[in-house]
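Retro notes - structure team

What went well: the batch runner handled both jobs without manual restarts.
What didn't: labels got mixed up in the shared folder, which is why I'm recording both outputs here explicitly, each with its sequence directly above its tokens.

Job 1
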Amino acid sequence: LLRKSLAARPDLRVLILDPHNEFAASLPEHCVRVDSTTLDLPFWMFKLEEFAEVLFRGRETVPEEVDALRDLIPAAKNLYRNPNSGTYLRRGSDA
């Protein structure tokens, strides 16, 4: 079914969650495999609490650290979107 669909519509994009790697093995010429080593998610897509959990790896967060993240994440996002803005993130500065 997938082969026929792709033959009829070469521009078709299909997302399959394939935990056992069955589809990737049977359709290698059409497959783009994404795993934990190739998945690159922007840090600002996470909620603040989720990002802190990943960053601090489960240890108890300090409120001042969360407050710093609350300020730094929007500044980093802006810097990512506008790399030539002349803005720099420095310790002890307002961004």
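Job 2
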Amino acid sequence: MVDRTSPSGGPQRPPLSAASLMLRLTGIAVVVGAVAAAFAYVHGTFDPQRLTPKALVDVLEKNNGVHPGFRRNHAKGVCVIGHFESSGEVREYSSAQVFNEPRTPVVGRFALPAGNPYAPDNSVPIRSLALRFTQTNGQQWRTGMNSMPVFPVGTPDAFYQLQQAQSPDPATGKPDPTKVPAFFAAHPEAVPFLTWVKTARPSASYATETYNSINAFYLVNSSGQKQAVRWSMAPMARDSAPAAAEQGADFLERDLVQRLAEGPLRWQLNITLANPGDPVNDASKVWPDGRKVLNAGTLVLEKTQPQLSGECRDINYDPLVLPSGIEGSEDPLLAARSAGYADSYLRRTSEVSQLPATRQEARP
């Protein structure tokens, strides 16, 4: 929260032309919410003139439509069940049990960004993975990761402005195609994200994607020493698959089910240690290459469950639900994600009864 190759391990597509890039940016604007289901200041208790959780979730609903019972972002997904096997390599940096015990149970969720649970899987180039690790002491570690390497902006307000830029114009019912390019022109911090967008492509499988924390956190050891980190889940499955466009609208879940029928899927948890001076509180800034990377262990996923009846349905993957030994940084997007997730969670859980019975059991 970086793999410059295509998700299947093949060569990248050539860069887009300037005109094609602007068109793509208009369509991808809502996608950049992949890191956060909604952003706002914590609990919305600050100055009412500032951004609140309600305001941002409202704009996501305006842009995506309201689909009762579904998440306001990352609406289309699938539950996964498995465990984490610690390598022991992080013990000197963190007292968290997840890094000190041999095995920790995991409930996760693969998903697409944006708020339409019926969107075609190849409509966006980003995939996400959220995980809940439950330690033997009852403490939990929840994390939401995404296939993009960096966030486009560094503040909740800027993210909100981007959402507003791609809101439908009441006169036409469609977004103004000039607003998103104008937004990015006024936000030079988005250059690393835009550089990634030029060659980003929808992956053919959740199983071959790398997922990044994007935000920074701190590992804290038993002596109270802190180390700033970012992490990523690197896939151990690298085989290619047919082109996404040839697999229909819902190929990602089908592919995942088929792969798991043949055996567990694995990812290596890589934790990157920041050097002094690396930006810790700005998710729009990348860290230079050459940083020390720890192999924290292996994520093993064993089965899927439908998202509307599986264990992941009622989990709020709040990134600030952390066990002793892991702490959040002062990145404003982290506190914002926490507040926004809570607002979205309350809305969708109050609507579950509105789902038709067929939808409650179906895989969207």
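One thing worth noting from job 2: The first helix runs from residue 18 to 28.
We'll revisit the folder naming next retro.
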